[in-house]
């Protein structure tokens, strides 16, 4: 059996605090302090989750993370009975008396939302529009009435009061993305929704340089190449900052010179970008066209002189 030991250090949650990011974080923090839930929406890979986690950390309260998906239900959010605990006492101390006492109780496990609401955590609900709108309805009572109803749980209490320190940050992809549900207006109406778009080249390059541990010029060459290909996209959003980080990291890891005339570098770009680019362009032969576009973008690439 082969055991792979060398891992690329992803450390993907450290955030680069450029001026715009810092300003956005401060603004959002003020809104949260005033009691409003924040909702970051925007294309895939724009940095919404990274921002949400950085914002949550700033509150200095424990952070609970939930990922939206269509199977998420009230049992995951509120909790469920997980089984039975039984206790039996047989008392036969006096031989002529036989006494038996049996007690069976159900065991309850708090769901993640209930735990966060009760203890005043900061909840990051990532990609919440991937959950069914009916599942997300529970947030209406939390945000409006400050209670978490315990419906369908057989618990004796009808609801739990929301802890004053509880706060929630949502992230989502826009409605046109596959696999997302349209959010009910009543919920959107209660959130401060901030659109997070792709960053400009300089900010992307700074992030790639930091994450891939390469110099800024090489990082800028990669982000420019990826941005050029993204601009070719008509159908869907194309390759994101994530693709740039992948190229940078793998090039550094495998000591591939970041140069559009280097066949190894072109191969790396083709492997990482072809599929994504082929999905977002209009062409009868999307794969061939994507490969052509990537090779062209590589040949036009600015190369760092050593
Ligand atoms: N300000 C930043 N500092 C450091 N890294 C960042 C920053 N913004 C984005 N990134 C990096 O870009 C990549 C994508 O970010 P993230 O996962 O937050 O995007 P997203 O918008 O939540 O994407 P998706 O919608 O696909 O979940 C990650 O590798 C992340 O580390």
TrEMBL record:
Stored Pfam families: AAA_5
Domain (AAA+ ATPase): give its ranges: 34-202
Localized where? Cytoplasm; Gas vesicle
Q: Which reactions is this enzyme annotated as catalysing?
A: ATP + H2O = ADP + phosphate + H(+)
Q: Say where the protein is mainly found.
A: cytoplasm
Which UniProt keyword terms apply here? ATP-binding, Cytoplasm, Gas vesicle, Hydrolase, Nucleotide-binding
Q: Which domain of life is it from?
A: Bacteria
Q: Which NCBIfam families does the entry link to?
A: gas_vesic_GvpN
Which family is this sequence assigned to?
Belongs to the CbbQ/NirQ/NorQ/GpvN family.
Name of the protein: Gas vesicle protein GvpN
User: What is the species of this protein?
Assistant: Psychrobacillus mangrovi
- Gene from which this protein is expressed: gvpN
């Amino acid at each position: 059996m082969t055991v792979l030991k060398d891992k690329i250090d992803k450390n993907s949650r450290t955030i680069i605090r450029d001026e715009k990011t810092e300003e956005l974080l401060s603004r959002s923090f003020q809104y949260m302090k005033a009691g409003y839930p924040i909702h970051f929406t925007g294309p895939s890979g724009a940095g919404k989750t990274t921002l949400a986690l950085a914002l949550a950390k700033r509150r200095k309260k424990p952070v609970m993370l939930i990922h939206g998906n269509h199977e998420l239900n009230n049992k995951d959010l509120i909790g469920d009975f997980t089984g039975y605990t039984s206790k039996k006492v047989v008392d036969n101390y006096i031989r002529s008396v036989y006494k038996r006492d049996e007690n069976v109780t159900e065991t309850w496990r708090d769901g993640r939302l209930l735990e966060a609401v009760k203890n005043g955590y900061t909840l990051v609900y990532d990609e919440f529009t991937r959950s069914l709108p009916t599942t997300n309805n529970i947030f209406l009572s939390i945000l409006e009435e400050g209670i978490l109803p315990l419906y369908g749980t057989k618990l004796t209490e009808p609801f739990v009061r929301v802890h004053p320190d509880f706060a929630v940050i949502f992230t989502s992809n826009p409605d046109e993305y596959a696999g997302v549900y349209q959010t009910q207006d009543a919920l959107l109406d209660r959130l401060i929704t901030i659109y997070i778009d792709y960053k400009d080249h300089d900010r992307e390059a700074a992030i790639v340089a930091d994450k891939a541990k390469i110099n800024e010029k090489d990082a800028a060459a990669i982000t420019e190449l990826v941005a050029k290909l993204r601009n070719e996209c008509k159908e869907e959003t194309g390759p994101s900052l994530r693709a740039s980080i992948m190229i940078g990291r793998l090039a550094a890891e495998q000591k591939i010179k970041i140069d559009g005339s280097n066949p190894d570098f072109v191969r790396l770009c083709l492997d990482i970008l072809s599929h994504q680019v082929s999905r977002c362009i209009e062409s009868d032969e999307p794969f061939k066209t994507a490969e052509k576009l990537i090779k062209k973008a590589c040949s036009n690439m600015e190369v760092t002189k050593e």
